[in-house]
Amino acid sequence: MPLSFSFQVLSQDAGTRARCGKIITAHGEILTPVFMPVGTQGTVKTLSREELLGLGSQIILGNTYHLYLRPGEALLKQAGGLHQFANWPLPILTDSGGYQVFSLSGLRKIHENGVRFQSHLDGSYHEFTPEGVIRTQRALGSDFMMVLDECAPYPAERSYVEKSIVRTSAWAQRCRHAWQNSEDLYGHAQTLFAITQGGTYADLRRQSSEELIAGDFPGYAIGGLAVGEPKSALLDMLELSTEILPAHKPRYLMGVGKPEDLVQAVVRGVDMFDCVIPTRNGRKGQVFTAQGRLNLTNARFKEDFAPIETNCDCYACRTYTRAYLRHLFHAQEILAMRMASLHNICFYHRLMAAMRDAIAAGTLSAWQKSFMAKYQSAHWQ
C-alpha cells in the first residue's frame, strides 16, 4: 500500500504524558495536539471552506453513516471522493458509523456480522458490516478511516460490555483485513485506526486495548467515553488508555469535548480530538473565551459593545459586538450562528496551538495552571 502516512513525536513534556507530534498524510501535515472540526455531512455547519482554512483548521471529519445514506457511494465515487466533492484540500477523517450504533439505538439491531440500521431519513433498512464500512470509506477517500465498533451506553452491565469488546475486536480485525486487501480509489493512501472500548470497567478497557494493540494498527482511538459517565471515570479510563497505547502511534479521543476536557486529555497524552460542541453550542449562542463561557442571548449583553473576546482576532471579534450578535440571535438570523461558530472554532484551534507551544517550551504545567484558574473561575454568563 502507498506509504504516505507517518507519525513523529517532536517533543515530550517532562512532567506529564503530553507531547507534540506531526502526522504526515497525502493531503498535508498535521501538527498535534489537534482539534478536528466535525463536518457530519461533508461540511462544518454554517462555515465555508475558506473560513475553516483561514481559522487554521488542519483536518475535518465526515460521518460515514450520514454520507452513505446521502449522497451515497455512487455519487461520491463519481465526484472523485469527498475531498473533490467538498473541495477540501487538507486531510479528512471519517468515522465508521459505530457511534450511530449508540446514538440511534432505537433504529438498529446488532448482530455478530454487523449492524442492521433503519434510516432516519426514510425508514429504509441497511446493513453495516466491517467490510462494508471499509468499502464506503474507500469511496469517501478519507485519509483516516475508522474500524466499525460498538460504543456501549453508560451505564451498562458488565456482561454486556464483555460481549461488546469481543465483538469490537473481531470487527476491527475484519476491517483491517478488508483495508489490507482493497485498494485506494483516488491515488492517495488511506490509513486505518482501531477504536478501543470497555466502558468504565478498567480491566475490560485494558483487555480491549491490548487485543487491538496486538493487531498493530497505524493509530488508536479511545472510544466509548463522554457518553454520560462521571468526569472522574472518564479521566481514569483515559489515564489507563494512554498508559497502555503505543507511544509511537497517534492517540485519538473521540467525541471530546469541552475546553477543560481537552486540556486534561492533552496532559494525559492524547493527540487528536473531535467534538460538535464548538459549532452546536455556537448555533445556540454559547461562545468560549479564555475568561470563561458566555451565553450571548442573555440580557446582560443587550448594551455590551465589546467583541466576543477582546484579544481574539477572528472575523467575528474584529467585526461585530456582543450586543449586535445578541440582537441577531433573538431575531433568529443565520449570521449570528455563523459568527459564534466561527469564533468557537478559532478559540479551539488557538487553545491547541497554545498547548503545542507550551509543550515545546517545557512550560505546560505552568500554562495549564494559569489557563484553568482563569477558565474555571467563570461559569456560564
In terms of topology, how is this protein built?
Elements: E1 6-12, E2 19-25, E3 28-32, E4 34-37, H1 49-55, E5 60-62, H2 64-69, H3 73-79, H4 82-86, E6 92-94, H5 98-103, E7 108-111, E8 114-118, E9 125-128, H6 130-140, E10 144-146, H7 158-180, E11 191-196, H8 202-213, E12 219-222, H9 231-244, E13 251-253, H10 259-267, E14 272-275, H11 277-283, E15 286-289, E16 292-295, H12 315-319, H13 322-330, H14 334-361, H15 364-376
Parallel strand pairs: 4-14, 5-6, 6-10, 10-11, 11-12, 12-13, 13-14
Antiparallel strand pairs: 1-2, 2-3, 7-8, 8-9, 15-16
Question: How would you portray this structure in words?
Answer:
- The protein is built from 15 helices and 16 strands.
- By secondary structure, the chain is of the alpha/beta class.
- The protein has two domains: 6-275, TIM Barrel (Alpha-Beta Barrel), CATH 3.20.20; 283-376, no CATH class.
- Helix 7 packs parallel to helix 8 (202-213), helix 11 runs antiparallel to helix 14 and helix 14 runs antiparallel to helix 15.
- The chain is globular and about 60 Å long.
Count of separate structural domains: 2
Task: Specify the structural class.
Answer: alpha/beta
Helix content: 40-55%
CATH fold-level name of the largest domain: TIM Barrel
Main sheet?
A: 8 strands, parallel
Poorly predicted runs of 5 or more residues: none
Strand order in the largest sheet: 4-14-13-12-11-10-6-5
Please compute the radius of gyration using only Cα atoms: 20 Å
Mean pLDDT: 95
Beta-strand residue percentage: 15-25%
Question: Cα distance, first to last residue?
Answer: 52 Å
Number of strands: 16
Supply the CATH architecture of the largest domain: Alpha-Beta Barrel
Q: Helical element count?
A: 15
> What best-fitting shape do the alpha-carbon axes yield?
globular
CATH evolutionary superfamily of the largest domain:
Queuine tRNA-ribosyltransferase-like
